[in-house]
Amino acid sequence: MWETPSSYRRYPGGDHLPDKLKVWRVQRQAQDGKARMVPPYGAVAKPWKPSEAPDTEILVAGYNTGKMDGAVAVGREGNFLQWGFSAPPSKMTEAGRVFFLNSVCYIAKFPGKGPASAK
Amino acid sequence: MRMAALTRWIGFYLILAAGAVFVPSTSVAGGVDTASPKIDLRVIYYGHPQSSRARDFVGFLEKHFSKVGQGDLDTFRESEGAGYDVTILDYDEVKVVTNYIQMPKAIVSKQYRRPTVTIGATGALVCERLGLKTGYL
Predict the structure, then answer these.
(1) Are B88 and A81 contacting, i.e. CB atoms less than 8 angstroms apart?
(2) Range name among A11-15, A111-115, B100-104 with the lowest pLDDT average
(3) Is residue B10 in some structural domain?
(4) Which among A2, A117, B19, B84 has the fewest CB atoms less than 10 Å away?
(5) Between B93, B124, B130, which is nearest A118 by CB?
(6) Mean pLDDT over all residues of chain B?
(7) Which of A46-55, B12-21, B83-92 has maximum average pLDDT?
(8) Which secondary structure element, helix H or strand E, spans residue A81, and what is its range?
């Protein structure tokens, strides 16, 4: 259980979230195992964005300290899969490594499918 | 401190997605046994050459995929992905100079159709440049 980031409270529904959230860890954190923000930083996207274009999907939401609950950590649009986590494989958890391998295998199924939003 | 500066100056959110809220997806189900024989996919990784991060990724990929290539994200050309099933675009930590995020050009056209994994903040910026929903704001 991790503390609910204060940024979550600023968005609709955020004030109803519990003080702590259950998370599934994809990567290990700082060396001391306490600090959570370690470079290189990852990225998440706004959760409503995938609904704005066809052939998009949210694969997992990501715990973050700048946006909202449900922000997209891993998502796909057309032939692009964005893996928002920052760690290299040696710093991923075992589950994270398997998820990463699955993600590479998954996007291989989308050759020739261009993203509708590309400009 | 750097995180705060990036957020304040640029309005982007560089976020450490350190742990995913548990939202299992059937889309990626099927499982990959990391101890099983190599996966029959050809993967090419573009990143920061000679960096420990690039070695980390390439070493891992070589353990699991039948063919692995690597290249420099700074000189990435779409045509170089021919002969590979999946292209991975990654880099080291992005840098901020005079209020602008600096990273390799990594020019990708809207006609690009190869399966591609973009990673971290660099990946989000690549997606953003293309106007994808997986990018930043």
Answers:
(1) no
(2) B100-104
(3) no
(4) A2
(5) B130
(6) 78
(7) B83-92
(8) strand A80-83
